[in-house]
Design goal:
Blueprint: H1 12-17, E1 36-45, E2 59-63, E3 66-70, E4 73-76, E5 82-86, E6 94-102, E7 109-115, E8 121-132, E9 137-152, E10 155-159, H2 165-170, E11 176-178, E12 183-190, E13 195-200, E14 210-218, H3 247-252
């Protein structure tokens, strides 16, 4: 059977990148596949690509029959209900990439490319669609540090973590810990310049550092772009052939 199809309202970007004679894929959608949601891809880097890949860099995703670009955020893949945000796409490990995109059904194969300066698309990762779940929590950890100023057995005056009284009152319920394994909490602020009195579970040493972990939930940005131009054709660099002198020419010289 040969069917002639007439397509209306064709985007201008498609006509600019379309080459006569190249096949055009036409596909149908299942239920809910025309809607947008948060997609979580389980990816692993290819060993041939070594440059660092930052979180929120624009990448090109080939998800099943679809192709689009987005800026994902990376996180660890664990069995917990909260997942740590990763600033870079790590090597030799499985990483979760989260974006806004059209709904697909797992396990859908995924190829991830990065556009180079010359317009070529280079493969950087492969994987599959893990889930379509906007409730997956990605948290970013920030560590505040302070130094003990005066030490009296289990209590100490800590400075340089905060610089005004209001911040100390706000973060008072958060637990403290030190590099040497002590744990404690803030008892009260002292003065107006960020000094605070803290109590720990053991004797604190003067060379120790007081730390406070703060967590912030990360959300992917709406960076979905369905238009991805085809890469330019690879041009073979023509190398000039230099003829070497023959033996007869060497003897003549």
């Amino acid at each position: 059977w040969y069917v002639q199809i007439h397509i209306a309202n064709v985007p201008k970007d498609f006509m600019l990148s379309y080459k006569p004679g190249m096949p055009v894929v036409i596909f149908g959608l299942l239920q809910h596949e025309h809607k947008m949601s948060v997609l979580n891809f389980l990816l692993k880097r290819v060993p041939e690509y070594r440059p660092p890949i930052k979180s929120k860099d624009r990448l090109i995703f080939h998800v099943g029959f679809r192709r689009y670009s987005a800026c994902p955020i990376f996180s660890q893949h664990t069995n917990a209900n909260k997942h740590k945000f990763e600033r870079f796409f790590a090597h030799d490990t499985v990483t979760m990439a989260t974006i806004f995109g059209p709904i697909s059904f797992p396990p859908c194969p995924v190829l991830v490319f990065k556009e180079q300066h010359n317009g070529q698309h280079e493969l950087i990762a492969t994987g599959s669609l893990h889930s379509v779940n906007p409730d997956r929590i990605v948290t970013k950890r920030i560590v505040l540090s302070g130094h003990p100023f005066k030490i009296n057995k289990r209590s100490a005056v800590v400075r340089y973590m905060f610089f005004n009284r209001e911040d100390i009152e706000w973060f008072k319920p958060v637990e403290l810990h030190t590099k040497w394994g002590r744990r404690g909490h803030i008892r009260e602020p002292l003065g107006t310049h960020g000094h605070m009195k803290c109590v720990f579970d053991g004797h604190l040493k003067s060379q120790d550092t007081v730390l406070m972990n703060l967590y912030k939930r990360m959300f992917p940005k709406w960076t979905y772009n369905p238009t991805v131009l085809n890469p330019p054709p690879m041009l073979e660099s023509s190398q000039s052939m230099v003829s070497e002198p023959s033996a007869y020419q060497l003897f003549d010289d």
